[in-house]
Amino acid sequence: MERKRNIRFALFRRLFPVWLCCVLPLNLWAQEVFYPTENRLFHIERSKNRNLVCYDAHLTEGKLDSKKPLDVYWIDREEAPGKRKGLTAIQRRMAYGYKLVASGEDSAQITLTAYSGRVLRIRKLNGKYVCVIQINNRPAILHSLYVQAKPKDSLSVEYVELRGKDMETGELLTEQVTP
Predict the structure, then answer these.
(1) Strand ranges in the chain using DSSP code E only, listed in sequence order
(2) Per-residue pLDDT averaged across 70-89, rounded?
């Protein structure tokens, strides 16, 4: 019995480093890495590259900041994975910024600069801030947007896919919106 245990341990000791070096990284590479934060509301993925535009709740003394409710920034997933970069003034004004429509007691309503057709509502739900939007005419918690650029013009949008979770049923929802 003791001999079997020693053989198993010796085998484990020899194979474990192989598993750490070879098998585990393959599993990690297969998964998308989004670098979530505690205050992440949603992010934008794009067909152009793997980098993300992240939208986090901006808190002041534990409450949603009424003047600047969002912290918007890039997460690099290609050249310097995990590195955070701010938006340029042009990116804020033309593409990834937002407009504050209304703010209330620990809540806000915004529209995205590039897509002002829908109001996004930021509010607290079960102790965590969420972004609520209509997806397929149903109230949903927004998780991400995917922007598909036109094949021959990466500055033009073919469609945007909204992704979220139905607030009543918990069902995952998606909706494609064309400009």
Answers:
(1) 40-46, 52-57, 59-60, 63-64, 70-75, 84-86, 98-104, 107-112, 115-125, 128-135, 138-150, 153-166, 172-177
(2) 95
